[in-house]
Design goal:
Number of strands: 15
CATH topology of the largest domain: Quinone Oxidoreductase, Chain A, domain 1
CATH architecture of the largest domain: Alpha-Beta Complex
Radius of gyration: 20 Å
Number of domains: 2
Length: about 325
């Protein structure tokens, strides 16, 4: 396959112009492994990029898409052979290096993870950066020493991609999970993933106190802003919060009180430049601790042509769980 279909971002007077078009291998950026992409996915960052809502695309022209999974078709790196199934999350792909919204991708071998034995390409993208980030959060909480006997764990933005996977994995590991969402109509969905209770997002919208009632042994937060500030103030003594998103705000209107009076630890989760050893650990744990039947229940699939409309829907809050993008064969 020399020519292939892609969404391609080019310069325009109004900023990046993204169109579906046909490219050739000459349009790909340098790399030592070429992959035939079978599936990609839609993350919050992808939706911001394709809608132009934030300056995600930092090098033009470029193929967006921070995730992909597929089959190696060319390799000059001894670690990967033709026919190997691989996945990629982050490393600036879809931001400064062409990514997964195309039938072909050429990347640095250092960025690739071999698919775990029991996960196929579709499942890998049903997990995607969102699910892999959720696992990084859980690993941080485990490293802190949080265990199921310590009390409830809160997950904010629970009906989204990160939240859905976090709820499912934490539940399977035996934690009592409280799921916060602005979509209380999704309560049955969240309970089907293992949530013990569903909490209204508005409970975290008020101006945070320096210290609130101690409710949570730990938390996974995707929101930032007042939500994260309230979560910190409500976390129990010596507890931990893993923060991985800014869906509400980049601001953090809190004080030092939770940290110096209760010994709370705030872990920042960087999924983009996470070291390879930790990535492999996260994907290995996902292959063991994520219920694949639950994963399927939270996953929908769209054809490649429907990608622009689906990114609009994600930002409008019309999507839940995970969305995989099927590339043409």
């Amino acid at each position: 396959m020399n020519s292939f279909s892609a969404f391609y971002a080019t310069e325009s007077e109004q900023g990046p112009l993204i169109q579906q078009t046909t490219l050739t291998q000459d349009d790909l950026m340098p790399g030592n492994v070429t992959v035939q992409v079978k599936y990609s996915t839609i993350n919050y960052k992808d939706a911001l990029a394709l809608t132009g809502s934030a300056p995600i695309l930092r090098k033009l022209p470029i193929i967006p898409g921070i995730d992909f999974a597929g089959e190696v078709i060319e390799s000059s790196d001894e670690r990967f052979s033709i026919g190997d199934e691989v996945l990629l999350n982050g490393f600036g792909v879809g931001e400064t290096h062409s990514g997964g919204y195309a039938q072909m991708a050429r990347v640095n071998a250092d960025w690739l993870v071999r698919l775990p034995n029991n996960i196929d390409c579709r499942q890998a993208m049903a997990i995607g950066t969102a699910g892999y980030t959720a696992m990084l959060c859980i690993l941080a909480l485990e490293d802190h020493g949080v265990n199921p006997d310590d009390g409830p764990v809160l997950v904010t933005g629970a009906s989204g991609g990160v939240g859905s996977v976090a709820v499912s994995v934490l539940s399977k590991l035996g934690y009592s999970v409280s799921a916060s969402t602005g979509k209380l109509t999704e309560s049955d969905y969240l309970k089907s993933l293992g949530a013990i209770e569903v909490v209204d997002r508005n409970d975290f919208a008020q101006k945070p106190r320096p210290l609130g009632k101690e409710l949570w042994a730990a938390a996974v937060d995707v929101a930032g802003g007042q939500t994260l500030a309230n979560v910190l103030s409500q976390t129990r003594r010596a507890g931990a919060v893993a923060a991985c998103g800014l869906a509400e705000s980049m601001d953090l209107p809190t004080s030092v009180a939770p940290f110096i009076l209760r010994g709370i630890t705030l872990y920042g989760i960087d999924s983009v430049m996470c070291p390879m050893e930790r990535r492999i650990q996260a994907w290995s744990r996902l292959s063991q601790d994520l219920d694949l039947e639950r994963l399927e229940s939270m996953t929908s699939e769209i054809p490649f042509d429907d990608l622009p409309a689906a990114t609009q829907d994600l930002l409008a809050g019309k999507l839940k769980g995970r969305t995989v993008v099927k590339l043409p064969d």
